[in-house]
Amino acid sequence: MKKQKNWLWVLLFLGPSLLGFLVFIAFPILYSLVISFTDWNLLNPMKFIGIDNYASLLRDKNFWAALRNTGTFIIGYLPSVMILGLAIAILLNSKIKLKTFFRGIYFLPVVTSWVAVSLVWKWLLNGQYGLLNYFLSLIGIHGPSWLTDPRTAMFAIIITSVWKDIGFIMVLYLGGLQAISPSLYEAAEIDGASQWRQFWHVTLPGLRPTTFFVLMISLINSFQVFDQVNIMTGGGPGNATTVMVQNIYNSAFNFFEMGRASAMSWLLFLIIFAVSLVQMFGERRHK
């Protein structure tokens, strides 16, 4: 009887949240899987077509181009944000003045909306009157059209993304650094280890769990990059910055190909899931 009462209290408190999860998250996710096997434009009735959406995507050059652009973004973004975030965390974990103030300054972009950040950077990187090209002109350099040149557009997206996310990575690494016992550094110093050796043999091994967590969430977020691309370039010029989520968005809300967009979403999920499994397997092997 007592266990039943406990379950009633559990359902009473968790019921509203559980209901919201089922209605607004679980059901739409599962229903999108059903839609991925249909031809549906939101107006006409669904037409079941089996795996045709998946088969056509694997033959579609635009799909592979979007996947390649996503990979280019990840290759540029991931090491940059992790290395710079770690470097800033180490600096702000040392005994410097105003470090609390600087921590707040670096974290400020994290709590700023992507819309505001993207619009500001779109202005800064404007090829004609942008602030960056203005400063370059002062030293005799003619800056490129950052967002309208296929050679520099993705680089501009990467710069913006790193600037926005570096504060979040810094905070995670700060937590990892402060969890390392100071006695390890004292022992290394007594043994005559230089600052560089302490970094390689004490700091990096101590940050291994943090680095794995940072790598996992950053990689997953990288696969889902969208806001800055949609606002700053719209996937252009041409298809130079069309990433996976941008491609899904275009298929669903510009061309109303809901079945195709759903199939693309599930393929993206499978890619992220496979990459996450490889990372977790690799981490366990090195423990």
Give the beta-strand count: 2
Major sheet: arrangement of strands: 1-2
Q: Termini, distance in Å?
A: 46 Å
Structural class: mainly alpha
Task: Count every helix, treating DSSP H or I runs of 4 or more residues as helices.
Answer: 13
- Give the H and E element order: HEEHHHHHHHHHHHH
Mean pLDDT score: 91
Biggest beta sheet summary: 2 strands, antiparallel
Give the strand content.
Answer: under 5%
- Estimated helix fraction: over 70%
Which blocks of ≥5 consecutive residues have pLDDT under 50? none
Radius of gyration: 24 Å
Looking at the structure, what is the overall shape? globular
Report on this model:
It is a single chain. This protein is mostly helical and 287 residues long. The chain has 13 helices and two strands, in the order H-E-E-H-H-H-H-H-H-H-H-H-H-H-H. It has helices at residues 2-35, 52-58, 61-93, 99-107, 114-124, 131-138, 153-178, 182-190, 195-206, 208-223, 227-232, 244-254, 258-285, and strands at residues 38-39, 47-48. Strands 1-2 form a two-stranded antiparallel ribbon. Helix 10 packs antiparallel against helix 13 (258-285). The relative contact order is 0.13. The mean pLDDT is 91.
